[in-house]
Specification:
Elements lengths: L6 E2 H8 L3 H10 L6 E2 L6 E3 L4 H12 L4 H9 L2 H33 L2 E6 H11 L6 H6 L5 E7 L2 E7 L3 E7 L5 E2 L1 E6 H11 L4 E5 L4 E2 L2 E2 L10 H6 L6 E6 H7 L5 E6 L2 E4 L2 E6 L7 E3 L1 H10 L4 E6 L6 E5 L2 E8 L10
Antiparallel strand pairs: 1-3, 2-3, 4-8, 4-10, 5-6, 5-9, 6-7, 7-20, 10-11, 11-12, 13-16, 13-18, 14-15, 14-17, 15-16, 18-19, 19-20
GO molecular function: 3'-5' exonuclease activity; DNA binding; DNA-directed DNA polymerase activity
InterPro entries: DNA-bd_dom_put_sf, DNA_clamp_sf, DNA_polIII_beta, DNA_polIII_beta_cen, MerR-type_HTH_dom
GO biological process, one term: regulation of DNA-templated transcription
Length: 338
């Protein structure tokens, strides 16, 4: 076989899978010299048998081996070559792990929804909204209604529950909010979570990873009703009644009850409770099994009732805690004027 230096730099570059500029660079570095350089023109010529060294050099550079170590592998003792390659493999592995960790942080940041809140406050919020979550057949038929929606948006952590007859919303201000996202906690998981965090000073919730302080939470995939749209369509209240919360709770009894605002009193069935309100030509019926838990979940001695008409949801606001809102659907009592 003719091994004469008959290949121009362009032809040899194509044979070895390199570029002419790379061959010139490797010549200048002394790791791949041409077989012959024409003194008159300066043209470089290569022998075909130099391809093996060129391909090896190409692979080593593709692997990122520094040129000084390339020389060791190409021309040094085999043990030195092996040691250089093993050291470089370890270096590549460390670099890859560092790069992957950095990418994980960036990707996590793109969908980040992390909030730090007080443990007791989160526990209280869960317990406040849970009574509005569906149970029994309604929850079996539509599992998302048996859940608490946990939503981070606009620097607020919102906990929401509804069975379509009741609605509860509690807003928390995280210590360190970040991003936006949501998840659904089944009622049983929410109760366990409330017990778990009640005695913790602070807890970190990662809605993207569905983790609480690094531990996975039991969640449900599904689409929660658009509560924001529902709130946006509520008519402005026509009447407001401020009444003692526990007195109203005690007056409900066990059967359907009618509420009538009077002058500084609220008629509840056959009882008149002191209240801050004006007389209104309005009578609103309630099921105590629905209104009672909403009153139990409220905070403070007083509760504010916002009434529109006998058929529209009634908004209950805690006088001592404006961050908690409950809606209760009234019922129609036969024979009662509307």
């Amino acid at each position: 076989m003719d091994q004469s230096p008959s290949l121009t730099i362009g032809a040899f570059a194509r044979l070895a899978g390199l570029t002419p500029s790379a061959l010139r660079f490797y010549d200048d570095c002394g790791v791949l010299e041409p077989a012959h350089v024409d003194e008159a023109s300066g043209y470089r010529y290569y022998r075909p048998d130099q391809r093996r060294r060129a391909v090896l050099l190409r692979d080593l550079r593709t692997a990122g081996l520094p040129l000084p170590e390339v020389g060791t592998v190409l021309d040094g003792p085999i043990e030195a070559a092996r040691e250089a390659l093993e050291a470089h493999r370890r270096r590549l592995r460390r670099d890859a792990e560092t790069a992957m960790a950095a990418l994980d942080r960036v990707l996590h940041g793109l969908d980040s929804a992390v909030a730090t809140v007080l443990g007791w406050e989160l526990a209280a919020a869960i317990r406040q909204v849970l009574p509005s979550a569906a149970t029994g057949a309604p929850a079996d038929e539509m599992p998302v209604l048996g859940c608490v929606l946990v939503e981070l948006a606009e620097d607020e952590l919102r906990l929401v529950a509804t069975d379509r007859y009741r609605f509860a919303l509690r807003v928390l201000r995280p210590e360190t909010p970040g991003g936006s996202g949501s998840l659904l906690l089944p009622a049983a998981s929410a109760r366990e979570l409330a017990t778990l965090v009640a005695r913790r000073a602070e807890v970190g919730i990662d809605l993207g990873r569905r983790e609480l302080d690094g531990q996975k939470m039991t969640t449900l995939d599904g689409e929660f009703p658009d509560y924001r749209q529902m709130l946006a369509t509520l008519a402005p209240p026509r009447h407001r009644v401020l009444v003692d919360r526990l007195a109203l709770r005690d007056a409900l009894g066990t059967g359907p009850v009618l509420l009538r605002p009077g002058r500084n009193e609220l008629a509840v069935g056959g009882r008149a409770l002191p209240a801050l309100c004006d007389p209104a030509p309005l009578a609103v019926g309630f099921d105590p099994a629905v209104l009672g838990p909403a009153l139990d979940a409220s905070v403070g001695s007083d509760v504010l009732l916002e009434l529109t008409d006998a058929l529209q949801p009634v908004v209950l606001r805690s006088a001592d805690q404006g961050a908690f809102t409950t809606l209760v659907m009234p019922i129609e009592l036969p024979g009662e004027p509307r």
